[in-house]
Amino acid sequence: MPEAKPDVRKIATRWQDCLMICRKCSKKISGGFGPKGKTRLDKALKAALVEGKGRKANLAIMQVGCFDICPKNAVIVARGRTPETLYSVRSGTPVEDVAHALGLDRPGEEEEAASPPA
Hints:
Blueprint: E1 17-22, H1 23-28, H2 41-51, E2 59-64, E3 74-79, E4 82-90, H3 95-102, H4 109-114
Parallel strand pairs: 1-2
Antiparallel strand pairs: 1-3, 3-4
Helix pairs in contact: 2-3
């Protein structure tokens, strides 16, 4: 009898972190980011990070279901490395400011903070 294939498999990625952006919030504010204020936050961040430090290769940015926190004129964002914290990003906030607030412009910050001082 042939051996059954496992139901759960590991799949390697290059990701070291992920951003989860509420799809419902994004839909409510009809974009709200980018130069013309019509781009969704996920697309604006991807574009900004590719132009900037090129972190897209190790950062997954994805839209997910509702977090059940529905701010007015803002989008809820969760970062995979810090699941205990959610971020409310107001529509129209410059993408560079969003990246800074989320710590995306400071690679390795969590690793340094987590390691004990020498």
